[in-house]
Amino acid sequence: MKTPTHGLLGYAVARAAGWTGKKRRCAIIGAVIPDMPVILAGAYSVAMTVLEKSGFDFAYFKMQMDQLYFANSALLFSHNFFHSPLNLALLACIALYFLDSRCRPAVLAFLAGAASHSVADIFSHIDDGPLLFWPLNSQIRFTGVISHWESGRGGLLMTLIECSAGLGAFIMACVKWSALRPARKYIGGSLAILLQGAGRRARLKQKTIKTDPGHRQAA
Q1: Residue in 154, 128, 158, 155 with CA at minimum distance from that of residue 143
Q2: What is the pLDDT of residues 24-67, one digit of tens each?
């Protein structure tokens, strides 16, 4: 599943759990963060492909990415740290038993977002999904029935679904923004009146000080 859709899924998880404020933000961030290592690896592979091939060559780019994704130990660690269901369960246990009550809810919300990311990727990848039992095992992956990034393996359908979800979320955000607009206008107007009143009081105070004979004598 593509990263923006993971963000929407994290929001849906937070909304379903009734989380607001900090916990909701943590869930959304947790749903997006797991893709950051592979995004950086992709940017590196694009740069190397362009430099070595004097242009973009998809076959060469895929070869570069496969070498990094399946064999690079640093990428295996960073990518699966928040993708592996086993590792996420271990992190949740650590948070439950070792973190204090002030930061535990935010960390668990973050891990819930990451878990939603992991589950979505397990079922939207055919042969390159998350390592299920990492760090104990670096081979076992679930074989999904669809690959979100390969057009010949259901990727086109998946892309249409994700784009539709993104468009729907955008429309809902616009409707919500429009509904809140009168309230924002009222708040903005009230704030402007308060600032104008404060400015008038400050100018009046300065004028009083300047015209006060006692103030001039002391000066």
Answers
A1: 128
A2: 999 999 999 999 999 999 999 999 999 998 889 989 998 999 99
